[in-house]
């Protein structure tokens, strides 16, 4: 029997609330300033596959392109010794509320101490994006077990949670 999924929505309403974790000298985080839809698709699969992210699996190349080429969408990639350690996307369609749309580490870099620093970078980048008034993110119980704790440790607060029951078809 499948377990239910709890989705947590977290927010930060002031840059001063960020509790930063220092970035290690061997982790470089670089903005992908030239949008590349297929690169974002690759990053999404690299980071999301272990957690069964699937909401964008059916997207076409043109749908990916339409997302990443918007002015309100930005992507950063974390590198460790030349390998992709993780990434995040910021999405701010209303010009004020900045969503950390996707965030995560590549499987071989889980447990290396990069998550807090990468999330600190994501939150700081969201606040440095002129016009941001609020930063928010959502996670769920199917994500990495430390995800919610990492968001809260950086200063994000839960403002809503929802529980979804397993689908009837999966109950056998």
TrEMBL record:
Residues 30-172 form the N-acetyltransferase domain. The keyword Hydrolase does not apply. Keywords: Acyltransferase, Transferase. Signal peptide: none annotated. InterPro entries: Acyl_CoA_acyltransferase, Bact_Acetyltransf, GNAT_dom. One of its GO terms (molecular function) is acyltransferase activity, transferring groups other than amino-acyl groups. The keyword Hydrolase does not apply. PANTHER family: AMINOALKYLPHOSPHONATE N-ACETYLTRANSFERASE-RELATED-RELATED (PTHR43877). This is N-acetyltransferase GCN5. It comes from Pseudomonas inefficax.
């Amino acid at each position: 029997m499948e377990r239910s999924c709890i989705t947590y929505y977290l927010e930060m309403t002031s840059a001063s609330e960020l509790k930063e974790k220092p970035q290690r000298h061997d982790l470089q985080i670089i903005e992908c300033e030239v949008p590349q839809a297929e690169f974002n698709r690759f990053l999404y699969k690299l980071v999301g596959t272990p957690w069964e992210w699937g909401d964008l699996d059916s997207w076409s190349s043109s749908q990916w392109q339409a997302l990443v080429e918007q002015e309100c969408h930005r992507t950063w990639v974390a590198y460790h010794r030349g390998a992709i350690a993780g990434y995040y996307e910021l999405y701010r369609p209303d010009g004020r509320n900045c969503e950390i749309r996707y965030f995560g580490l590549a499987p071989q870099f889980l447990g290396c101490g990069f998550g807090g620093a990468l999330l600190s970078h994501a939150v700081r980048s969201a606040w440095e994006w002129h016009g941001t008034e609020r930063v928010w993110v959502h996670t769920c119980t199917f994500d990495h077990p430390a995800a919610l704790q990492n968001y809260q440790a950086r200063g994000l607060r839960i403002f809503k949670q929802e529980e979804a029951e397993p689908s009837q078809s999966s109950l056998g």
